[in-house]
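Field reference: sequence -> structure
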Amino acid sequence: MSRVLGVYAETDLPTRYASYWIQLIMNEARAAGHEVRGLTGSAVTTQGLLSSMEGYAPDLVLLGGHGSPNVFTGSGYQTVLQACLNDQMMAGSRALFVSCLTGQQLVPSMVRKGAVAAQGFVKEFTWMISGDGVPSTDPYAASFNRTLVESARVIMQGGSWQD
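Structure field:
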């Protein structure tokens, strides 16, 4: 059994979808018998993540929010993780980002500082939406969330990013 931490703050349409997809992965983790906790909303800050990393010591961290090559943002678009500044807090864990561009600099920096493994996008994460912007009823969103859920499922089952 692994400890899984879902980190997401719904601040706009893209993060509404990212939050929903993180919640789907968290539900999969619970169903598979993993211990799951969430860090959500206004708690998604640098201090909130640091406290969760120190107090909970998750094996897998699912992060949904906005990103840039070296930054992941949370509540109120504030910087939560930044390459070469505070990303050492991810040491010992695996991380899956649903966040644009974090795979360029932030993810490699985390791995150099002791993260077991991490996955992030090196390009803008683009997906299609249909209807009123409600992820649970959006027929187009399903194909995008399946790829994220399947990646996380492989990791939770002990697989590698290459699997």
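Note: Residues 129 and 140 are 6 Å apart (CA to CA).
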